[in-house]
Amino acid sequence: MAGADLIGQSVIRPDAHDKVTGGRGYPVNVSMPRMLHAKLLRSPYAHARVLSVDTSEAEKLPGVKAVLTAADVPQIPFSPVFFCPVESKSLVRDMLILSDRVRFAGQPVAAVAATSEVIAEKALELIDVEYEELPVVFDPEEAMQEGAVQLHETAANNVAKNPAFEFGDVEAGFAEADHIFEGVYQTQRVHTCYMEPRVCVVDCDRAGQFTVNSSMQHIFGLREKLAYALGIPQGRVTVIKPPYIGGGFGGKLDLGYIEPIAALLSERTGRPVRIEQTRYEDFITTARHAIKVYLKTGVKNDGTITAREAKSILDTGAHATHGAEVIMVHGLFGVVFPYRCANKKWEGFTVYTNNMIGGGYRGYGCPQGCFAVESQIDEICEELDLDPIEFRLKNAYQKGDPHPFNPNWSLNSYGYAEALEQGAERIGWNQRNPAGSSPGVKKRGIGVGTQGIWVSGCMGFPDILEHTGAIIKLNPDGTADLASGSVDLGAGQNTVLCQIAAAEIGLEAGQVRMSYADTNTVPFDAPIHASRGTYSSGLAVQTAAAEVKKRVLEIASFMMETDPEELDISSGQVHAKGSPETGIPITAVIDIAESPFIVDTEEGPGPSSPPDLKGTIMGTSSMAPPENPSPATALFVEVEVDTDTGVVDVLRCVYAHDLGRVINPNAAEGQVEGGMQQGIGYALMENLVFDQETGACLAGDFLDYKMPTAVEMPRSIESIFIETIEPTGPFGAKSLAEQCVTVPAAAIAAAVYNAVGVRIKDLPITPEKVLRALGKLD
Amino acid sequence: MKQLITLNINGEENEISISPDATLLQVLRNELELQGTKRGCDTSACGCCTVHMDGKAVYSCVIYAMAAQGKEITTIEGLGGNGQLDPLQDAFIQAGAVQCGYCTCGMIMSARQLLDDVKNPDEEQIRHAIAGNLCRCTGYTKIVDAIKMAADS
Amino acid sequence: MALTELKEFCLPESGSEVVSALDKYGDGSLFVAGGTFIHGLEARGFLSGVEALIDLNQLGLNTIQSERHGVRIGATTKFAALAQIPGFDTPAFGALRDALSYPPMQIMNQATVGGSIAASCPFFDVPAAFQVLDGSVTAQGRGGPRDLPLESVYAGLFDNSLAADEYITSLFIPEQHARSCSAYLKLETNANDLALVGVAVRITVGKALTRKDRIRDARVVLGGGLGQTFIRSTAAESVLNGEIVGEELFQKAAEAIAADIDPISDQRCSAEYRAAIGQVYVRRALQQATQRLE
Question: Which of the residues A252, A449, C224, C288 could staple to A746 if both were Cys, CB 3.0 to 4.6 A apart?
Answer without folding.
Answer: A449
